[in-house]
Predict the structure.
Amino acid sequence: MTFGPDAVIACPSCGAPERVFTLRTSNNFFDSYWTDGYASRPCAWAQPELTRCHACGRFYWLEDAPVLGRMPERGRKRWFLDVDGIQEEEEPREAVPEAWEKAPQVTRCGVEALLEALAAGVADTEEREILLRTQVLWISNHKNRNPRRKRDRQKTPQARKNMVALLALHRVSICRGMGPRRCRRIPPRLPSA
């Protein structure tokens, strides 16, 4: 995995610039796939879909943020032989606005931030809500992914509520494609936990 130049985006609410990493190359060596759908990919990082602005504190989707540009790559180094020995010289880099240089990197949201975003209604489509709720499920399952650690089967009340809401969303999306007759066979409610 090699990183490319950072992309610079603007917060849709306040316009503050933030930097997002890009990948030049990646691979699937050492990937681990889990039964809950999570893929641990140490050699192919994924950008966060949702982040919180460092300036105004509002949530926004990276795909909705306007792209201001890309940070220029570092200048190439070249070595040459001089009277004083081997010399190193670096080509100058393109000039960029100072705000881009000082812009913070976007960060991935944790469970509390994702649940706060869901409560605030940031997930404006069903697909986005499923995505956020699935990420909450994956993060709550991370503590059981280490084989050396004692497994903790207990779910927090927040994680249980999230799983029930996620199941209801999947039931609605499945029924939408099945038709009313076949959908009646799916139980309408879960047994209480």
In short: The two ends are 43 Å apart (CA to CA). Residues 113 and 119 are 10 Å apart (CA to CA).
